[in-house]
Amino acid sequence: MTTPAPLAAPPASSPSGRLEKTHLRLGFVALSDAAPLIAAKLLEFGHAHGLTLELQRQPSWAAVRDKLLAGDLDAAHALYGLVYGVELGLGAPRTEMAVLTVLNRNGQAITLSNRLADALAEHGTLPRALAALGRKPVFAQTFPTGTHAMWLYYWLASHGVDPLRDIESVVIPPPQMVAALADDKLDGLCVGEPWNALAEAQRVGRTVAYTSEVWPDHPEKVLACRRDFVDTHPNATRALVQTMLEACRWLDGAGHREDIARWLARPDYIGIDESLIAARLGAAVAGMASVAPRTLPVRFFDDGAVNYPHPFEGAWFLTQFERWGMIDARTDYTQIAARINQTQLYREAAARVNVAVPDEKMTRVLIDGEVWGSGATSAAYARRFAIRR
């Protein structure tokens, strides 16, 4: 399959100074929400901003973390919670990290084995369905502090299931999830697309919930790097954010979800049938249903509403780390998030590519009725939950 010709480049924004580095190595994991990086590379959006991008697929989120920390990658498609975990030294040497922009919202799901899905349909509630298995169920997520672990735990708890006591939680890289389900090693999983779609297509599992039901329009993957990279390469980092915003804006164009699904299907990116990728990207696919009506679609841009790295959203992950016993309670979640999320750099980049910055004041209502927003306080929030460490 031939590489698409680059689009006509938009005018380069006025530089604030020479780029400290022009060749950037970006990591990604084989998921549909790596689409902004794939589009940015194949359409060479970086050229208008003085950058050449080199993409490096990684086998797992642990590999992304390790290569960012070692300096083998300059930046990466990363789980929001992974970045915050590294900042706190959870499972890795404590390293100051940076969230540059949000790459997408929504687009993840929870899939159950056929056996458990049948039990849920028969017994009506998740606790009864799990009890019917006659043993401790095994659920997979993709990284201990990652978004999939947090969505899975929150969803289970909202149904009265304690994820620390009632299930066994295991870590499996996204591309290996479906095989583990097919081999009867799992009762359920939470992962990004297209792996839920593939599980259904292979008839080894059924999607029962979407993460947008847990937190509507939740932040998911981010573009992340070490904070010292931002400090040492501020102009190059700003140009990279501009490049990603161009790519996210392109993904909203007519017919572009079909285009990106076709490119993501290549062996060097995801390597599965493009129709399975396209269906859950909201693209039109003959003979296939898209995602369920109750879920919100994966979002990449929406006139910039997707991409601003709201610090209050990052602080939420810290409350969940506390809730599940990964960290002790502390009072500086807001300050931590303000250090990690590079809001000033984002604003500068957005202004140069004519992307509006959304209102920072907003409130989200989660699946259990709990409210989290820009005015929320993290003090005692984690201790409000009946199910916690």
Overall description:
- With 389 residues, this protein is of the alpha/beta class.
- The chain folds into two domains: 23-106 and 218-373, D-Maltodextrin-Binding Protein, domain 2 (3-Layer(aba) Sandwich); 108-214, 3-Layer(aba) Sandwich (D-Maltodextrin-Binding Protein, domain 2), CATH 3.40.190.
- Helices cover 37% and strands 16% of the residues.
- The strands form three sheets. It has a five-stranded mixed sheet, with helices on both faces.
- Helix 1 (35-42) packs across helix 11 and helix 4 packs across helix 5 (126-132).
- The radius of gyration is 20 Å and the shape is globular.
- Residues 7-15 have low confidence and may be disordered.
Search tags:
single chain, 389 residues, alpha/beta, D-Maltodextrin-Binding Protein, domain 2, 2 domains, five-stranded mixed beta sheet, globular
Shape: globular
User: Rounded to an integer, what's the Rg over CA atoms?
Assistant: 20 Å
The SS-based structural class is alpha/beta
Number of helices: 16
Q: Tally of extended strands?
A: 12
CATH topology assignment of the largest domain = D-Maltodextrin-Binding Protein, domain 2
